[in-house]
Amino acid sequence: MATTAVHTPVKSHSNIFSTKAAGGRMPLTPSPRGRNSPNASPFTPPARRRHHDPSWHADPPRKANLFGDSSSRSGGSLTAAFASLNVSGSTKSRSSRVAPSPKSNIARSAASPLRLDLGVSDWALTGSGMTVGQTPVKRKTRSGTGKTTIRINGDRFIPTRGASSPTASSKIEHPTSRPGSGHGRSNSVLSGGVFGNDDNDSTNPSSGDDTSELYQRPNTDSREYESSIAAACGVNLTTRILAFKPSAPESSKPIDLRSQYNRPLKPAASAAQFRRRILTAPERVLDAPGLVDDYYLNLLDWSSNNQVAIGLERHVYVWNADTGNVNALCETSPDTYVTSVKWSGDGAYVALGLDSGDVQIWDVEDQTKLRTMSGHQSRVGVMSWNKAILSTGSRSGNIFNHDVRIAEHKTAELLSHSSEVCGLEWRSDGAQLASGGNDNLVNIWDARSIQTPKWTKTNHKAAVKALAWCPWQLNLLATGGGNYDRCIHFWNSTTGARVNSIDTGSQVTSLKWSTNYRELVSCHGMPDNQLNIWSYPNLVRNVEIPAHETRILHSALSPDGQTLATCASDENLKFWKLFEKRPGSAGTAREGSSITGKGNKMAKQMTIR
Amino acid sequence: MPPAEKTKKSKAAGKLGDKDKVHKLSLKGSSKLVAEFFEYSINTILFQRGVYPAEDFTAVKKYGLNMLISADDQVKAYIRKIMSQLNKWMLGGKISKLVVVITSKDTGENLERWQFDVQLQGKAAKAKAPPPKTEKEIQEEIQSLFRQITASVTFLPMLDGRCTFNVLVYADGDAEVPMEWGDSDAREIVGGEKVTLRSWGTSSHKVDTLVSYRLAD
């Protein structure tokens, strides 16, 4: 309180008097009621500041005397004094004031007990700098310029004021700036006028001074200003609102209460609510006798014409998923066997990789061999079509691109792998080719510069057979490692960054993305021989299906994206309806389901010589 | 109480046994109780309103409830700092309100404001001399308030986006203010809805709880 008291005295008088608005407000603020009352206008604090008139500074001696007596020093400030006069002690204070010179009166009032109340910090701030010395000067300046309106009002009203003042002050809340209206309008004005009269007879504040002071106020002490505002907003002056200033620690992650309150007891179960129901029993089981139990081969493929080709040792069978008919497509020469099977994109041809290193292309409808492409010195374990380009990977680690339309079919050699290539997959747009080998490498090749791999990834610790490009995000590649690795890594093929990983705990033999859901299915070998369906990108395992007795060697997704075919070394070919379309949703993915195909009519899209 | 009365009472207690044992909390004890209540309140609000993730909280038995308090070291330290000062103020009777303001980190807007009004009931209480509450009664009052706070998530609007919080106190003008505390505005919710929750009190303090929040647009 002491501090406040010091500031106030000087300002209050001069300012109040000088500006009309200020005058009206001022009385309010100074009076204890006004301060306390929530109603007080936000303006009040500035008004207080105004009080510091430079002119007052001249008076220091007087003030010193007056205030000096009180512990508060200047804190009581003129305004405070006035206030006190108005509200509680109105009669007394006035009388006292009136008698001597205006300034001296003011000072006395400050000394009065009321002043103590005023002592609030707000006041102190405004008044503080200027108050002590200023008074005498003020008079002079004021008398010259500002007195006119306010004083006049004050003079007129003075008599009334005594009676009205206390109530008036409380009402005063909004000080209007109208100078003229003063008397009729609000008590506050009146009171202000009154004060002015009392104090000022000689002293009116000059308007000019006031304005200059006004500018200064905001600058002087923002904190004080705030507190004064707070006070004006009805906060009790005797209390301070304090905030613990250090900011609270950051939350470790964003929180959604919706999920929090839906939170099941176990986090794993949370996905269950949103988990769709997945059939865990095979829709159909076929025998695949004589299937070569070799992890590095790729003997199963499902065409866009809804036909499943499977290589069983020296034989290739085509099972028509529409009709359920099985045809034996061909039988290789006795000195070799089929090591890979791949349908062309249009579903009209099937490419066969052989243990001898030859690649044969068969027309399925005619059941005739169209051509044989030689080149590889060792078995061709994996192939991938990109339109008319057939890429083949061999045991030597070489990958060749063959253009099946031309006689000199070999168009490129992709030499990077040092061990058998067992995974090979063109991106759907044909811009990139991913390859995985027994040397634990994943290579991503750019079709435009095929000489060296764009990216070589060494994260896997075992052979990489499982490769799959994401159908909805072209540059996302999933790769799965073998028995010593058991991880699925997700790559951004544009930047080469690994974006996600799953440790599946089991050998990954193949991966397929769903075309209907944001999911992918992984087929596993040792130790669990299961199918896993993962949500992407949250990598939650939606379901685990114990699918086969032994390791799942190959898998193929139906053209409608609903059914997965798997074959395992237990010589079973099983069909799983893993990605059944929701009843409501239109069949967007592909035409032709396993039941109602688009017919057997094949549209041959390229000519093979 | 005059000593004479005390002795009487102890006799009476002896007769009746512990059945209706009445604890008269000293002002100091009551202040501690209120301060402790504040600590649990802050933690409860942080948990219930999702200012920090649920996994940062651990459950402790308090007021006959499972109260969740933050287990995050930083948050714990932050609250501890607040509480250490709050305890001093409470003992000195310098505080009339404690306010927890939840603010949006993105917009800086005040979204929710929990206000706890503390009234010292010294004189009034003596004059009226209400029957002193037993410890159990006080605990039940606090318990039902916390139940209410917990239940309030059902009507409070969702807090979207990241939020943070601030603690304000309304302190007496003559309270000692350490460096870490500074003047602030009231951080009221402009045009907010206000809901008054239950009150509780000891013989020396009365605590009223009020939550104000911004109505959803």
TrEMBL record, chain A:
Domain (CDC20/Fizzy WD40): give its ranges. 286-576
Q: Extract the ranges annotated as region (Disordered).
A: 1-73, 87-106, 125-225, 584-609
Q: Which UniProt key words apply to this protein?
A: Cell cycle, Cell division, Mitosis, Repeat, WD repeat
- The protein's superkingdom reads Eukaryota
A GO biological process held by the record:
positive regulation of anaphase-promoting complex-dependent catabolic process
| Compositionally biased tracts (Low complexity) | 143-152
WD repeats (start-end): 331-372, 414-449, 545-578
What PANTHER family does the record point to? CELL DIVISION CYCLE 20 CDC20 FIZZY -RELATED, FI02843P
Family to which the UniProt record says this protein belongs: Belongs to the WD repeat CDC20/Fizzy family.
> What protein name does the entry list?
WD40 repeat-like protein
UniProtKB/TrEMBL annotation, chain B:
Q: What region holds the HORMA domain?
A: 28-211
- What Gene Ontology cellular-component terms does the record carry? cytoplasm; kinetochore; mitotic checkpoint complex; nucleoplasm
Statement: the UniProt record of this protein carries the keyword Nucleus? yes
**UniProt keyword annotation of Manganese present:** no
Q: What SUPFAM superfamilies does the record point to?
A: The spindle assembly checkpoint protein mad2
* GO terms for biological process, alphabetical: cell division; mitotic spindle assembly checkpoint signaling
A molecular-function term among this protein's GO annotations: DNA binding
Name of the featured protein: DNA-binding protein
Q: Per the UniProt entry, what species is this protein from, by scientific name?
A: Choiromyces venosus 120613-1
